[in-house]
Amino acid sequence: METEAAPLALTQGSIRWEIFLMKITCLFIALFLAIFAAGPYARAQLGNTGSIQGSVTDPSGLPLQVASVTIRNRASGYERVIKTDSAGAFRVMNVPFDSYHIDVSAPGFEATHQDVPVRTAVPTTLKFSLKLGIETTSVTVEESADLIERVPEAHVDISDTEISKLPITSTGTGLSDLITLSAPGVVADSNGFFHPLGDHAQTSFMVDNQPISDQQSKQFSTQLPLNAIQSVEVTTGPPQAEYGDKTSLIVNTTTKSGLGQKMFGGIAAKAGSFGTYGEEASLGGGNGKIGNFIVFNAERTGRFLDTPEFSAFHDRGNDATAFDR
């Protein structure tokens, strides 16, 4: 009788946990709608990232509608493709500080391109005038200049696409796993810590240009959920003066935003060994003036102590994070 009672208890616990996850997801969606419906009270400012805006015209100066504008950085994997409006204007917000290659094209016109650095919150304004296209057949061989970043410090760019492919081992210390797996010269330590270049506790974290001096681990502070991160720039060379007196890594993180975005999001469930299962939910959207992005993650697992037991009875725990911008 005892051997049959244990699986029943686990099943009932799993059902209760799934019901809890469903309730939290409904609450999260209701919270997003309430914040987004608040209008001016939900107004967000992107003073901590850059933006690229401009206009596209024909040779006579008339605006070109529905011209295609592609902004990309191949080193980081960042790419945005937008269309110009009725006035020939375009605008991309929440652009991480970096260098970008911009391609502009329209049917019947010659395509053009330009390299632009974004290192300030002041909008970068561009003007493109496309020439009339001439039907010719040619082969052009040129270097991929946008693969080479001309910056004074050694660093690693990590996009959200690359983050989704990494084998993250813990929800509570996902950011530490990301840095350990992506940045050279960084080794993992116990309890979610890591050692960069032989230093201990000498890493400066910047989240949307806000400095965080706390050590990032389960013991000291809650880490950002990875599905709330748009990109990470990890500086592995000597830190620049504006980052303070830390002597090792600079982790410059840009989070996702709903400003200037159509409604987007998703819900995902996961399950694994040692009684591991959880749920992830995200939702965002807005326009050029207001927007909101919110994330909720929950997980229940028996691997918090890396248990040697086949049936986890002593090491089970819950982990939940919420992020709203």
Describe this structure in words.
- The protein has 325 residues and is an alpha+beta fold.
- 15% of the residues lie in helices and 36% in strands.
- The chain has helices at residues 2-36, 160-163, 174-182, and strands at residues 50-57, 68-73, 78-83, 89-95, 98-105, 112-118, 124-129, 155-159, 186-188, 194-196, 204-207, 210-212, 229-235, 250-255, 264-272, 276-286, 291-301, 317-324.
- It has a five-stranded mixed beta sheet with strand order 8-13-14-11-12. It has a four-stranded antiparallel beta sheet with strand order 3-2-5-6, with no helix packed on it.
- The N and C termini lie far apart (51 Å).
- Residues 1-11 and 38-47 have low confidence and may be disordered.
Question: What keyword list fits this structure?
Answer:
single chain, 325 residues, alpha+beta, 3 helices
Mean pLDDT: 76
- Helix percent reads 10-25%
Strand order of the largest sheet: 8-13-14-11-12
Main sheet characteristics = 5 strands, mixed
DSSP summary, beta strand count: 18
Strand content: 35-45%
What's the shape? globular
